[in-house]
């Protein structure tokens, strides 16, 4: 274990004297993961007190303490057990190479760690990286990648604005996070290889006690219900009774669709749940099968 303390100790943060076990979670203080992390906790019924500019806060609605930290420090805090769990990008987790378990992928903060070269440069494969100077904020992941590919190259660690390195003659190649690709484009670079696909994950310390595990299970149950709800929509429609069978056959539902008689004789209201992946296709099929007045409603939680 790395005993070197590179970050500000939070030892006094976890005090407070309360005897009740609290799950201590580390989330990004500000930046790309902050809003979604706090939103996810809220959607799980975990409301946080005075979040603004705080180093830590507590929830009144769940036994939880929240530490707001730089994302780079989160894996270390979780490995050390200063925080029990954390929300961090896979890119940071694997770069820091700390001992923490991934509990759940959270579906936000999606990006990829990619190799990019100048647009004018020809790139035929990883062998082209041999002997090159590579600028990156991810020296560990890059060196692991190069080792696996038997490539020897020079890694230059830069903490920010990696994309300008080739333009100022600092490097031939960059390895950086990409989401839309516009940063690379604006800097005359092209993406040629992906090293890692990344998203925000919930991580946990390897040795949680029984009570902490129970609280984590509770949280995970809620996170899964929130995630599932986001992938599904509640659909209501009217249908003439003679077309019900065809319509029902198109609908999956949690058990089977709900069918209720309408005030108008010969008509029914059909309710069901559709997954995002097949949503539009199903709506078209339902319409063609005779469904009318189709309403689509978001689902807040989905407990199976
Ligand atoms: O202050 P702190 O250290 O906590 O934050 P930070 O500045 O290190 O990180 P931050 O807030 O920028 O990002 C936090 C996490 O968001 C990252 O570790 C990733 O897991 C995730 N994420 C998702 C991204 C991106 N998408 C992303 N596009 N992080 C950074 N970028 C940057 C990238 O570095 C590049 O500069 O955005 C640019 C590329 O974006 P496109 O859309 O132009 O391709
Ligand atoms: Zn960071």
Walk me through the structure.
With 304 residues, the protein is of the alpha/beta class. The two termini are 40 Å apart. The N terminus is likely disordered. The protein has 3 domains: 131 residues, Periplasmic binding protein-like II (D-Maltodextrin-Binding Protein, domain 2, 3-Layer(aba) Sandwich); 88 residues, D-Maltodextrin-Binding Protein, domain 2, CATH 3.40.190.10; 67 residues, 2-Layer Sandwich (Alpha-Beta Plaits). Strands 2-3-1-4-11-5 form a 6-stranded mixed sheet, sandwiched between helices. The protein has 8 helices and 15 strands. Bound molecules: phosphoribosyl ATP and zinc ion. The site of zinc ion has 3 residues, from loops. Phosphoribosyl ATP binds next to helix 3, strand 9 and helix 5.
- Global outline: flat
Report the radius of gyration as a whole number of Å.
25 Å
Bound molecules: phosphoribosyl ATP, zinc ion
Number of helices: 8
Judging by the overall fold, what is the CATH architecture of the largest domain?
3-Layer(aba) Sandwich
Low-pLDDT windows of residues: 1-18
Number of domains: 3
Mean pLDDT figure:
93
Could you name the key traits of this structure?
single chain; 304 residues; alpha/beta; D-Maltodextrin-Binding Protein, domain 2; Alpha-Beta Plaits; six-stranded mixed beta sheet; five-stranded mixed beta sheet; 8 helices; binds phosphoribosyl ATP; binds zinc ion
